[in-house]
Batch of 3 targets.
Target 1
Amino acid sequence: MIKKLKLSLILLLLNSTLFAQTEWRQEFQNNLSLLGHRNWILVVDAAYPYQSKAAIQTIVTQEDHLDVVEEVLEAIKKAPHINPEIFLDKEIDFVPDDEAKGMEKYRRQLYKILDDNIVTKTLHEELISEVDEAAEVFHILVLKTNMTLPYTSVFFRLDCGYWNTDQETKMRDRMKKGNNDE
């Protein structure tokens, strides 16, 4: 009887974990088509705060941080309507491995995932402020992982996938001149 109870409990835990993993992916995919220019997607560590603004949606993934970063980056790149602007905490390069075991390995793996991308490093509090300010008008999706290393959050600010900054600048210049010719 006890063995059956233990087995049932193990199966219940496995099923709830699989459900949570499927659930966050489905929720992420549902949101991805809604998100656009100026929205944010954050892949954060386990201690990242649960923010109170209504426009900030937090989903607990119960998954490996780097796996979630990679999956989110690939999904953004495949989406024709958005491009990622990637931000990391500036502090990430100053956390020594002897104070946060595994930090060096994490940095190597993260930089390998982000290798083909432009990455901007900004102080953590400044990124939190930017996200907070953006949440006044735009939706923010936070994917919370099981990561337990400090300053490991990856911030994706979404940009338009079919209209870039250079095109916008040229159009604004034409508008100032009153010229709609290319």
Target 2
Amino acid sequence: MREETLEFRGGPARGLPRRNRTYGAGRTCADPLCETRLSIYNRSNHCWQHEPVRAFIPRGKRRRREAA
């Protein structure tokens, strides 16, 4: 009888990605006249309509002057 050898190919199994952060269920917008229920994934205390305006800070790679 001939013994067969098994070969497996592939990479190591990776772990699962980290779970999304959640913030209390049943919250409502902090604006007194708004009754919008917030998602458990919304970290803010306001809905999109009453969220205070913030300055945009661009991040990422800067292009070189020759490439631009």
Target 3
Amino acid sequence: MRKGALSLSVTAIVIIVIAFVVLGLGLTLTKTIFKGAMKKIPEAIALTELEAEPTAERPIVFPDTIDIKRGKIETLKVGVYNRYADTKYKAFLNITNCITEEGEEVTEKLPTITAISQDIPAGEARAYKAILKENGLDLGRYICEIAVYSTVTKDTTETIEKFESKQFFLQVTS
């Protein structure tokens, strides 16, 4: 009878040890998953702040109309999606041109947009916090283009290439 009692307690000990090992593995796995998620959270929060998430069909998320007072600045949130097969390095925003309601090209005093450049891997989106500065345009409505550029390195030579653009209305008020 003692042999059976001893056998039962050894089995119980083995089960308890296995339970602790499985519990430890489960906790380690959970910790690893949360660590990975925490690295992605700042990026995810920035993308969720946008009016819509950028996609391959809509690679630039930017307001269609911006009202700005003459000589002032506005803060904006811009989303960019890389629909190409390669990573876009040091991607930055720029306002490339504007035209008046009459179709005249604006050559001076173009508005400027400032944001921190980012690398955008293929098939991923990034959010930019940007500052749009109006540089003294006449009052009125303009059609402008925002473009996204990246740095391309070939044979130790760096060049800048435009990979996305979008038109928007700019209303300059007093």
